[in-house]
Amino acid sequence: MMKMVAEEEVCGRQVACIIYDSIMNFVDAVAGRLKLPSIVLRTTTAAYMHSHNVMFQLLAENLIPLPECQLEAAIPEVYPLRFKDLPLPATIEIPQIVLDFMHSYMDIRSSSAVIWNTIDQLDHWPLQQLEQHWPVPFFSIGPFHRMAPAVATSLLEEENSCLSWLDKQAPNSVIYASLGSVAIIDENELIEMAWGLAKSEQPFLWAVRPSLLNGSDAMKSLPEEFIEITQERGMVVKWAPQKKVLAHQQWEGS
Which Gene Ontology terms cover its molecular function (predicted)? Predict the structure, then answer.
């Protein structure tokens, strides 16, 4: 980083400030050596960061670990946050190395300000709470994804043929089903989903990625009878271009 700053000065450009991701906490020390102000970038929401402070407070008061039966209970004074919503499991002893990392992650050190990936309308109360811990200016300029150029984010091959199929369906008539790119279910659950869509008697678009089942191809495990009775009103793909599907005119007004 020092080399980069030196190169900028050679080119006649003065570095005014260093903005760094909160995970890269060493940058604050580098900025201090360079006598430059630093601003920490929080890519998460303020509500998520506030939940860390709540976790530390509960630990200090010896309120966790707690029994699993209390996970659904609301945490006093921070409604609607529940114990199950905390960033770390509330029913086990948290290793000290994890707590040390959390403390380091939460510390803004000598930063002059904090940039947030949120907006005040969504995170007003958590931002107010965090301002009591960090008395520096806050800049809520998110959500960042609205500023970034559109890029392909899918790790799976998308079947765009479903978009032309959607074009032919009546407005607001299609059920879109997808369990995402991580979830794994068993064959019974897959079959239950299949027959649920069949019995809905509605047109449907269903993304059934091959790895949805643990150890076998989910597409090949669909009942033949299901495929036969739904082929006129349903479309099953291995992976759908989800952003385009959700932005499709099919859903307008739904």
Answer: quercetin 3-O-glucosyltransferase activity; quercetin 7-O-glucosyltransferase activity
